[in-house]
Amino acid sequence: MAKVDSPRSPYVRRKTTRGNYELYSWVFMRASGVVLLVLIFGHLFVNLLVGDGVHAIDFGFVAGKWASPLWQVWDLLMLWLAMIHGTNGVRTIINDYATKDATRGILKGLLYLAFAVVVVLGTLVIFTFDPCPPGAPAELLASFCTA
């Protein structure tokens, strides 16, 4: 059984092998949270309030947005920041609640695998999206596509 120090004993700083990683992680969570608020509310404003609102969202709407490099970068930043932010939060929860090293390792391995799959697939979708696929019905295509 581990010995617990007396409440009146002087504080002794224990040496850590992690350096400032947790501090930087904490700062990143605060900064990325603020940036994500701007990105998400900008996304919601453009998609839900501008123009015909939610009723205008279809293939052509997304194709028109992703034809612009601005919206590709906007959505890429939103994807990457949200995934890194969420992965870091879940990593912290795993470190706090998984008591066995093996369990912690398996859970974090699955977490990082899920992160990698979502980020790679999401990035591929954003940059390989063809707004004018051949053979698509003309009414579903964006206005700038030639049918």
TrEMBL record:
Signal peptide coordinates: none
Principal location class: membrane
CDD domains attached to this UniProt entry: SQR_TypeA_SdhD_like (cd03500)
Organism: Promicromonospora citrea
Listed transmembrane segments: 23-50, 70-90, 110-129
SUPFAM superfamilies: Fumarate reductase respiratory complex transmembrane subunits
InterPro entries cross-referenced by the UniProt entry: SQR/QFR_C/D, SuccDH_FuR_B_TM-su
A cellular component annotation (GO) from this entry: membrane
The keyword NAD is assigned to this record: no
Annotated localization: Membrane
Protein's UniProt name: Succinate dehydrogenase
GO MF terms held by the record: metal ion binding
Key words, A-Z: Heme, Iron, Membrane, Metal-binding, Transmembrane, Transmembrane helix
